[in-house]
Specification:
InterPro entries: HDACs (IPR000286), His_deacetylse_dom (IPR023801), His_deacetylse_dom_sf (IPR037138), Ureohydrolase_dom_sf (IPR023696). The protein has 342 residues and is an alpha/beta fold. Helices cover 36% and strands 14% of the residues. Helix 3 (65-79) packs antiparallel against helix 4 and helix 5 (125-146) packs across helix 6. The protein is globular and about 55 Å long. Bound molecules: N-[3-({4-[(3-aminopropyl)amino]butyl}amino)propyl]acetamide and zinc ion (ZN).
């Protein structure tokens, strides 16, 4: 399987995040992608190629223009008054507060365009997120050539990012951008299967009213797990999209026996939908030793996960999302890809 990868992800390296009431080094760190790349090389998964530049048009098919302009200018606005540490949001417009008037100040804009504080913006963030989207779009282009599979080794990840807000380490929704590009290049139906431990709230909200992109997500139950405010089982889609959104909230402690039942159900729904292609939001933070998650999947379970996805027999684009057990992230992610090919 071909991997698309760019070193540009190193340009995005947040310093700290708030976890358990303390500032800890960001779990979403450059070494994550380095470890996956190393594993791709080690097992000889296939060629590794650099992304091509697709410009902002395919990004703007998914994201709000004001949001994209905010991301492009956020660092220069933040650093204009002398700040050199990461830009972080601090205040959000919840119930009863107004969003009809956009703040003019960067500190206000950071809250306006985010839903949590897990999204540091650094000097290199803009280039890194542009590159991450280009990785997904290039991998998609190659998928259309090969008609079987490709791997977008994206970093930063994307599935928590909605049309006009960032959050959960995510800025541009790489999987959504690729799914929309598939539609724009002639696919009639696309299924997005999100196996990251956290609900893909951004992807769900982008396609919630649409029947042409089905979204299915297996994740920690939002009653007890981040992102808390989306991802319940009773979110079936709306309008034309009614019936095209499927959530599988699973309890803390979920192991492969439990997980694979949900995955098989999701795969059956995908088969019934008969999509032209599948985009997999590939997070491996379901791993038993993940430092911020509470599922119990083991290294070899990821082989089975890949096999089940492979049995669908559809052109499949894998897009890297989360996974924070850095020593095992490469083994687990590449196991899914190897299982798919087996
Ligand atoms: C892409 C992705 O996987 N984003 C995940 C963002 C999660 N951010 C919030 C994590 C909250 C962790 N709380 C667990 C505390 C462990 N002691
Ligand atoms: Zn995650």
């Amino acid at each position: 399987m071909l991997t698309i990868y760019s070193d540009d992800h190193h340009l995005h390296h947040g310093t700290a995040e708030l976890i358990d009431g303390t500032l800890k080094p960001c779990f979403e760190m450059p070494r994550r992608a380095d470890m996956v790349l190393e594993r791709v090389r080690k097992v000889g998964l296939g060629d590794i190629a650099a992304p091509r530049e697709f410009g902002l048009d395919p990004v703007l098919r998914v994201h709000d223009a004001g949001y994209v302009a905010f991301l492009e200018t956020a660092w220069s606005r933040w650093s204009a008054d002398g700040r050199s540490h990461d830009a972080l949001p601090l205040v959000w417009p919840v119930r009863g507060l107004r969003t009809d008037r956009k703040p003019q100040d960067i500190d206000g804009l950071l809250g306006y365009y985010s839903f949590d504080a897990g999204v540091p913006i650094t000097a290199g963030t803009w280039q890194a997120i542009r590159s991450s989207a280009n990785v997904a779009l290039t991998a998609l282009d190659e998928l259309l050539r090969s008609q079987r599979s490709s791997f977008a080794l994206c970093r930063p990840p994307g599935h928590h990012a909605a049309a006009d807000y960032m959050g959960g380490y995510c800025y541009f929704n790489n999987a959504a951008i690729a799914a929309q590009a598939l539609r724009d290049q002639g696919a009639a139906r696309v299924a997005i299967l999100d196996v990251d431990y956290h609900h893909g709230n951004g992807t769900q909200s982008i396609f919630y009213q649409r029947a042409d992109v089905m979204f299915l997500s297996l994740h920690g139950d939002p009653l007890v797990e981040y992102p808390y405010f989306l991802g319940h089982a009773d979110e079936p889609g709306a309008g034309e999209g009614l019936g095209y959104n499927h959530n599988y909230p699973l309890p803390h402690g979920t192991d492969w026996a439990r997980y694979q039942q949900a995955l098989q159900d999701a795969c059956q729904r995908i088969a019934d939908y008969a999509p032209d292609a599948i985009v997999v939001s590939l997070g491996v933070d379901t791993f038993e030793h993940d430092p911020i998650s509470r599922f119990k999947l083991k290294n070899d379970d990821y082989l089975r996960m890949g096999e089940l996805i492979g049995r669908l027999g559809k052109p499949t684009l894998f897009v890297m999302e989360g996974g924070y057990a850095v020593e095992d992230i490469g083994i687990n992610a590449v196991n899914v890809l190897s299982g798919f090919e087996s």
